[in-house]
């Protein structure tokens, strides 16, 4: 608001712009008030001891003050674009007086700058029905700020517009799909966001399921490399995997992992979909409040698992499926099938066979290499998850003592293999392998325990840490990462990210068990809510000034986090600060406007 001005100075900001143009074209002899309130001068005259340059007129028709240039003294000296009597940015006049900030006009030295009347300035003004701080259409508010577009609502001036309603067959705001209803469970949720495993290509039509592994990235898939391999950057669930080498990981937007100390990602909510608070490039989005949530421990964790089903000896294999000699054949435990201990994984992330032409329970490298690789007419692949539930002691446990995940699928489901009896005389689908992977931040307290049959190999940091090879009954093995020699042999360093891989094989009747226990598991994720701009400081927000949110020094941003300001502990010299002690207290050496106090 202008203070103590002559009647002519109470004009609207739009008229101020007109007066500025008139001042530039004024004829010699036009008069205006001097900038410091002195006697009116003509263009080229002088009344206060200083000469003026006929081309250097102020917007109100007066001359620049001839004194020394002092930003913040309320007098506009030559070289200054404005001077509103202070050294603060964000109020229209930059702290160094060298720039009039976007969306403002500063016609009168010593007085507050005023908002320029214009569509896109974030203010709802005459003849406007919306103003979302831009002059672009198709975002809810038309380019001229005169129309709220169909399917949208713009409840807060200066903030992004939103979808008016889910189910109206118009995709708007944060909506990703519109199938014509507000029901969930059909591929398009009750808030019109895509549901996992679906694509919704046609507005108003039912959604359809996607097929992970077909080489086409669709719907909610983050990636699709056309295979069922793990550890290659794209999981068999079509989710991005972390890419880590010897504990050092590449920051990958959408992998759901916020790396310790990483500053390249502002957020990572485990997807690469925009309009949910965290963009497809892992940047915070306007209108949302986002927080990093560390769950230690969560109630449960799910890790992907790949099963490969084989038709074993005497299993009634039907053409063209080949009988595999390593399954339902010999019995007996045997270490060193993939040795030695602390030996490496192969370049493709699979175990390296170490028994030459064969062993007591295996039949050579060619047959073994098929265990964990897709091989037509030898194995058929299924993808699922293992859910580990939190226990009272803080560990995570998956425990299934009748572990037969493919009884109704695999070769049996395709009619190419017969079911065989287990020790309880129940028909089961034996002869399969499983592979699962997960990542963890090494702290030196982790413990992994496995109980199962038959073969089990655990690799940590791509080195063999546990060998329970061979065909045997339920056998237990433990890897403790609190053990110094083990940690040294595995090459682990605290604070870095490492991969654990568990390979398992079920190779003989008449039982199957799988028990995996993990200790000291921790995850971190980003959670966003569409609350920024409502004028209330909600969880995850540092500030919320409602319609006043926006860019500029000292202001609350459009993501409800403070922009640079006095009191943030950082000296912003470009904004006129010469000190900042982290507060806005007076008489402590640094004033409430971050200028050094004298005396």
From TrEMBL:
Domain PA14: from-to ranges: 387-532
SMART domains for this protein: PA14
UniProt keyword annotation of Membrane present: no
Sorted UniProt keywords: Disulfide bond, Glycoprotein, Repeat, Signal
Pfam families referenced in this protein's UniProt entry, alphabetically: DUF4215, PA14
Chain residue ranges for the region called Disordered: 29-70
Cross-referenced PROSITE patterns: PA14 (PS51820), PROKAR_LIPOPROTEIN (PS51257)
Position of the signal peptide: 1-28
Repressor as UniProt keyword: no
Domain of life: Bacteria
Classification via NCBIfam families: Fibro_Slime (TIGR02148), myxo_disulf_rpt (TIGR02232)
Family from the record: Belongs to the prespore-cell-inducing factor family.
UniProt-recorded name of the protein: PA14 domain-containing protein
Organism: Corallococcus caeni
């Amino acid at each position: 608001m202008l203070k103590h001005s002559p009647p002519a100075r109470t004009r609207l900001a739009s008229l101020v712009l007109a007066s500025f143009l008139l001042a530039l074209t004024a004829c010699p002899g036009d008069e205006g008030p001097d900038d410091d309130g002195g006697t009116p001068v003509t263009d080229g005259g002088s009344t206060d001891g200083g000469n003026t340059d006929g081309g250097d007129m102020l917007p109100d028709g007066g001359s620049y003050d001839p004194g020394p240039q002092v930003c913040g003294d309320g007098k506009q000296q030559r070289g200054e674009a404005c001077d509103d009597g202070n050294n603060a940015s964000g109020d229209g006049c930059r702290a160094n007086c060298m720039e009039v900030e976007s969306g403002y006009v500063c016609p009168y030295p010593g007085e507050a700058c005023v908002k320029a009347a214009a569509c896109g300035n974030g203010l709802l003004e005459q003849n406007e029905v919306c103003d979302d701080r831009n002059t672009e259409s198709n975002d809810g508010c038309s380019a001229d700020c005169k129309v709220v577009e169909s399917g949208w609502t713009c409840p807060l001036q200066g903030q992004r517009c939103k979808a008016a309603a889910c189910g109206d067959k118009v995709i708007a705001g944060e909506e990703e799909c519109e199938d014509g209803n507000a029901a969930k469970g059909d591929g398009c949720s009750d808030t019109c966001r895509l549901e996992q495993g679906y694509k919704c290509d046609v507005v108003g039509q039912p959604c359809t399921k996607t097929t992970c592994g077909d080489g086409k990235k669709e719907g909610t898939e983050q990636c699709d490399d056309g295979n069922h391999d793990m550890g290659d950057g794209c999981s068999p669930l079509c989710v991005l995997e972390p890419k880590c080498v010897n504990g050092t990981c590449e920051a990958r937007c959408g992998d759901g992992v916020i790396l310790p100390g990483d500053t390249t990602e502002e957020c990572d909510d485990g997807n690469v979909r925009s309009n949910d608070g965290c963009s497809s490039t892992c940047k915070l989005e306007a209108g949302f409040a986002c927080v990093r949530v560390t769950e230690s421990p969560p109630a449960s964790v799910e890790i992907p698992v790949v099963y490969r089903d084989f038709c074993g000896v005497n299993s009634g294999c039907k053409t063209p499926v080949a009988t595999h000699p390593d399954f339902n054949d010999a019995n007996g435990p045997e270490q060193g099938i993939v040795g030695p201990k602390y030996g490496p994984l192969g370049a493709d992330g699979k175990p390296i066979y170490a028994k030459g032409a064969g062993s007591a329970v295996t039949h050579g490298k060619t047959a073994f290499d098929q265990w964990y690789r897709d091989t037509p007419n030898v194995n058929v692949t299924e993808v699922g998850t293992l859910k580990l539930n939190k226990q009272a002691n803080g560990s995570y446990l998956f425990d299934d003592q009748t572990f037969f995940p493919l009884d109704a699928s695999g070769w049996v489901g395709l009619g190419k293999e017969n079911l065989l009896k287990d020790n309880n005389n129940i028909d089961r689908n034996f002869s399969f392998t499983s592979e699962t992977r997960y990542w963890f931040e090494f702290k030196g307290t982790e413990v992994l325990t496995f109980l199962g049959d038959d073969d089990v190999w655990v690799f940590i940091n791509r080195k063999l840490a546990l060998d329970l090879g061979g065909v045997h009954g339920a056998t237990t093995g433990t890897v403790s990462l609190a053990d110094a020699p083990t940690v040294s042999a595995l090459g682990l360093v605290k604070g870095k990210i490492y991969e654990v891989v568990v390979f398992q094989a079920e190779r003989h009747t008449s039982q199957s068990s799988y028990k995996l226990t993990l200790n000291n598991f921790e995850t971190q994720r980003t959670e966003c809510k569409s609350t920024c701009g409502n004028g209330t400081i909600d969880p995850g927000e540092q500030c919320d000034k409602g319609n006043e949110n926006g860019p500029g020094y000292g202001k609350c941003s459009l993501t409800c986090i403070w922009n640079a300001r006095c009191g943030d502990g950082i000296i912003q010299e470009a904004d006129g600060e010469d000190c900042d002690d982290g507060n806005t207290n007076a008489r402590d050496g640094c004033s409430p406007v971050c200028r050094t106090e004298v005396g």
